[in-house]
Amino acid sequence: MAGKKAGFITGANAKIKMFGETIAFATDVSYDVTVDNVPVEAMGRYEVFSYEPVGYRIAGSLSIIRYTGRAKTSNIDDADATGNNPAVIGDASVGNAKEHLNPQELLVSQTFDLDIFEQTNSTTPADTAVFRIKDCRLSRRGMTLNKRGVMTDRYSFVGILGGDYDGTSIDVAPSGYGDLT
């Protein structure tokens, strides 16, 4: 099997995009899809008749290793000249992470899609789309910094719909009105 490359998605070959742009140094990305079910019960019977779905939710988190504008002078590839604080993740046309975390801008903030891609390498012509979470909103931000480590921002998010992504559409569909794909 020498010379064969496995098609596994790893942290080393994954790209995370928020607000349509690749997030430099994103780590520890996770999500959970939850379908809420309620039991249908009847008097005189101890077991339930069935479990019926009543809700669909998707939530997750990711961490971003923080850097400042000095990283650009250190020749770090894809480093933004001003760093990667929430004010520069995104832009005026698609919104940004700062709007989701500033009480004054919450009502004008725009949702974003979170995309996971497998990076291009010498054998693939383009990044391979893997998973998309539609219409996300940031719901929490925290930070970790220790004496021997790097500063890491942790973000939690919620989304409307999520599924495997082929670059044009996701493999799940909304249950009611509106087009979310």
- Overall pLDDT level: 82
By secondary-structure content and strand pairing, the structural class works out as mainly beta
SS summary, helix count: 2
Range of helix content = under 10%
**Which residues sit in consecutive blocks of at least 5 with pLDDT less than 50?**
none
Which strand-content bin applies to the residues?
Answer: 35-45%
What Rg is obtained from the alpha carbons, in whole angstroms? 20 Å
Question: Which term fits the overall shape?
Answer: globular
The strand count comes to 10
* Count of all domains: 1
List the secondary-structure elements in sequence, H or E: EEEEHEEHEEEE
The termini sit apart by 39 Å
The major pleated sheet works out as: 8 strands, antiparallel
Short description:
This protein has 181 residues and is mainly beta.
Question: Explain this structure to me?
Answer:
With 181 residues, the protein is mainly β. It has one domain. 5% of the residues lie in helices and 43% in strands. The chain has two helices and ten strands; from the N terminus they run ββββαββαββββ. The strands form two sheets. Strands 1, 2, 3, 4, 7, 8, 9 and 10 form an eight-stranded antiparallel beta sheet that branches. Strands 5-6 form a two-stranded antiparallel sheet.
